[in-house]
Specification:
Layout (H helix, E strand, L loop, with lengths): L1 H12 L9 E5 L3 E4 H17 L4 E4 L11 E9 L1 H5 L6 E8 L2 E9 L4 E6 L4 E3 L2 E2 L11 E4 L9 H14 L2 E3 L4 H9 L5 E7 L1 H13 L3 E3 L12 E6 L2 H14 L6
Parallel strand pairs: 3-4, 10-11, 10-12
Antiparallel strand pairs: 1-2, 4-5, 5-6, 6-7, 7-8, 8-9, 12-14, 13-14
This protein binds L-MYO-inositol-1-phosphate (LIP).
Length: 259
């Protein structure tokens, strides 16, 4: 099944390459959708419904979410839409399969960098078919992928306080504008920490399984397991010890919203 899912995601991701597109502003400059988001989402739904008849869908570019199914596909047709719309390579198609309260499969495909990350629960994680695992770097040498909350700028100062303390106690910061890829970068040992105040489930659902199958850990801002069907803040790390340090920094600086 995972090989068929990878083939579907990679084929649909190719729609992002070399095609003209239009852009619609949903609200504000940060929240946009392109005609190719819609095309990728439609192509994925058509193929995934055949792959798993009777499954439901939770998709970024759809208002009605069909969750009353044993299996639910959690789809971000283009994670990093703003990057994509400006010709920046860091963007990806993210597809996760949710079953009985947890993710069972996840695929994140970045067609411009030629990277496909995948995982099946209990079977490890891969990048282009090769096994991947998190780094063992300590917090002092940790690089954190983090974002200020572009859709919740009222929480910018407290989020910035988290970034500042991690920057002073760790190594450095990075921001790629795509949670799905950033969490996969932790999974393959490029970076060690992740923080974002509030994400939609399609941003992180697939990549959270890839990270955990690569040996990493991810929770909500209060240290609880992620609900991969609902919006939530996300912290993640290459190991539990580094996550505990990050969780303490977040707890002291961020007022956790009731999502
Ligand atoms: C993006 C997230 C990213 C966040 C961006 C945006 P989208 O998802 O993956 O982490 O900081 O604001 O929400 O909207 O490009 O699918």
């Amino acid at each position: 099944m995972i090989d068929k899912l990878i083939n579907i995601v990679e084929k649909c991701a190719q729609l992002m390459v070399g095609h003209d597109f239009s852009t619609i502003q949903k609200d504000g400059y940060a929240n946009i959708v392109t005609s190719l988001d819609m095309a990728v989402q439609s192509a994925l739904k058509e193929r995934l419904a055949k792959l798993l008849p009777g499954s439901g869908f939770l998709c970024e570019e759809e208002d009605r979410h069909d969750l009353c199914h044993e299996y639910v596909w959690v789809i971000d047709p283009i994670d990093g839409t703003v990057n994509f719309s400006r010709g920046v390579e860091q963007c990806a198609v993210s597809v996760g399969l949710h079953h009985n309260g947890r993710m069972e499969m996840g695929v994140v495909c970045s067609p411009f960098t030629g990277e496909t990350f995948a995982a099946v629960r209990g079977q490890g994680a891969t990048r282009n078919g090769e096994p991947i695992s998190v780094s063992q770097r300590p917090f002092a040498n940790a690089i954190m992928c983090a974002a200020l909350p572009v859709y919740h700028k009222e929480h910018a100062k407290e989020s910035a306080a988290v970034l500042t303390e991690v920057f002073l106690r760790g190594n450095d910061l990075r921001r790629f504008g795509t949670a799905a890829l950033e969490l996969c970068y932790l999974a393959m040992g490029r970076y060690e920490l992740y923080f974002e105040y509030l994400l939609s489930p399609w941003d992180f659902a697939a990549a959270s399984l890839i990270l955990s199958e690569a040996g990493g850990v991810a929770t909500d801002l209060g240290g609880k397991p992620l609900d991969t069907l609902a919006p939530t803040g996300v912290i993640a790390a290459n190991n539990a010890a580094n996550l505990a340090v990050l969780a303490d920094i977040v707890a002291r600086n961020v007022t956790v919203a009731n999502n």
